[in-house]
Batch of 2 targets.
Target 1
Amino acid sequence: MNNLAVVGAQWGDEGKGKVVDLIAPRFSVVVRFQGGPNAGHTVVFGGRTHALHHIPSGIFHDGVRCLVGAGALVDPGRLIEELDGLLEAGVAPRGRLLISGKVHVILPLHRALDGAMEVRLGTSAIGTTRRGIGPAYAAKVQRWGIRLGDLADPERVARELARALDSGIADWCRALGAEVPEPADAARDAEAWWQRLAPVTGNVTRELHEALAAGRPILFEGAQGALLDVDHGTYPFVTSSSTVAGGIPASLGIAPRAVEAVLGVVKAYATRVGAGPFPTEDTGRLGDALRKAGREYGTTTGRPRRCGWFDAPAARHAVQINGLDALAVTKFDVLSGIDPLRIAIGYRIDGGEIDDLSDVGDAWDRVEPVWEEHPGWSEPLADARRLEDLPARARAYLDRISELAGAPVALVSVGPDREQTIIAPDGLLGAFGRGD
Ligand code: IMP
């Protein structure tokens, strides 16, 4: 097999950045297909932590081409900062990075609307990252968006923005107390952004078609997670894009069959940032312990993450809606010393039990987990490099979550560093290896 998708199988922050960085050398191309700077992919190596928001996590490997496809978003100012940060770290993305000219641009207007709407919603806010994601995707499907390639023509940007403002967007801004942008300012921004971004903008779909025709292996890098998918997540507490594997071909303009296998990344427990259903959340001592041990604070916003136990119905849902072939289980080391451990194996609603998350409907506030307890282990796992190195109880826990989720485990992460990883010898990843 050549082409693999790596997607989040919970509420985001599963550790996809580490997994993608680790396996990227097995591929020629790494491509992001959705989301924007709401994502925060952390890659740790050589004692340094690198946070990526737009740029694929393959960028730290010289021979790997990194692409961003049409279904993603970029915030040009932040993207330029990200490029500068990479240059400072000695990584030269130029020549290895290409962003589709069809990617929609997050304008200051979108960020302002995102923040103003969240403030208006008060206690019923979504808890967005306030990066302008929802309004920028809304602009795209309402057909008043600006695309990255449009920045080449600043006058056009001004014209398109003026047209959008006239169509009612200016009234919307005023109603929310958000500043109404000046088209002439947008044109000036566009000109400055384009100077920096023109060299990394181009035809990603064509490049993917060439890679596919030549049999060059491609890694599709997801952002956020299955339960944040706009259609299949815990709507309306979701992000505004298709986070699942099915979104890949539509976003990139390639055939569905190009996605040959899908790896879902799950934490060994669960976290969520922002508001919305989280049945296994522990708001007490244990949640605090997980937050501390797992350093569970958002990469993008620094917000403390809500923490809780592994949710098997949610994982099963992720397996089904993505067609996951295998799981990568991350942060396994964090569970050492917690005894007993719990797993939600199903949900109870009004006394009746269900094990399929899609049967919850709008009854999320009445969901109670059905728990199973597991004996914990005290041994640290950070030095484990083979499945045999894990204590028997840790192996049993891993086997159980795999069984409940309905997918085999292909990779286990026992610490943030690249080396702190166990790859299952006969697992899915054995099928990928750039011909070597
Ligand atoms: P938005 O994507 O900024 O609109 O936020 C919508 C929801 O998705 C909020 O609950 C965010 O906290 C969540 N979210 C968005 N991106 C990420 C991510 O990369 N990791 C975890 N949660 C995210």
Target 2
Amino acid sequence: MDYYGSIEAGGTKFVCAVADETLTIIKRISLPTMSPEETLKQVFDFFDEYELKAMGVGSFGPIDVNRKSNTYGYITSTPKHGWRNVDLLGRLKERYDIPIAWTTDVNAAAYGEMHLGAGKETQSCIYLTVGTGIGGGAVVNGAVLEVFSHPEMGHITVQRYPNDKLESTCPYHDNCLEGLAAGPALEKRTGTKGQSLPSNHEVWEIEAFYLAQALLNYTLVLSPEKIILGGGVMKQQQLFPLIRESLKVQVGGYVSLPPLEEYIVGCDLGDDSGTIGCLLLAKKKEG
Ligand code: ADP
Ligand code: ZN
């Protein structure tokens, strides 16, 4: 039996999985992210009993995905204590002498959703997660988008909603999407966590305005076939029609888009988008 491994390396948890050649997940574990040493020990304990053919890693970032770089495979400038400049891919390769695919968590999720989830039948899609932060991944013509570096879609500059005076929650930017629209911004804006807000609260209109503005910009740059939205904040289903409505207004009739109900959609694979994406990337890397 051929086995494939997947690691979704997140800032709060590492989700590791082993799947057979049909990509059916046969074992999975979720570990709280501790120091690199402690975390890797548990990761190794999990995978050591399998003869893996290949592995796929989708990591929190920023990470180095530039194959020409000396620090390819590193987690780079993360504020996460202990994880800055950690050669995560190198440590895995040291342990397992197999092909290992390496990309961002959101690129992996985009890849998973494109092949087996909401993006099936497309070749180009964007996956955006709106949670503690905002991050986006893209698959363009079937391949994840990364060249010099990887996209940082959460930190694009946005125009403010009329009279919005919220102080950005992003320590780097006063007017970026994440700083004005991620979960912590939503909480700062209302004094209440997103999950506790009523679905008819006026803040969803503001949230939809920012997300639609970002989606318009991604559309103008990449023109994907589909945009898939996930993350805690997007559990608010009422956001979808609000975003589509705002996008329609903000496009101003300039570009033609696919029907918006098909263009702006939720995830199909739920919490498995990243894991499935990593497994697919592992299989591709091996092939
Ligand atoms: P993470 O981004 O840390 O992986 P999540 O995607 O769950 O995890 O994002 C957490 C953020 O999303 C928090 O700011 C939280 O308040 C917000 N959030 C979680 N669930 C909901 C919900 N149902 N509605 C609105 N906001 C939510
Ligand atoms: Zn920012």
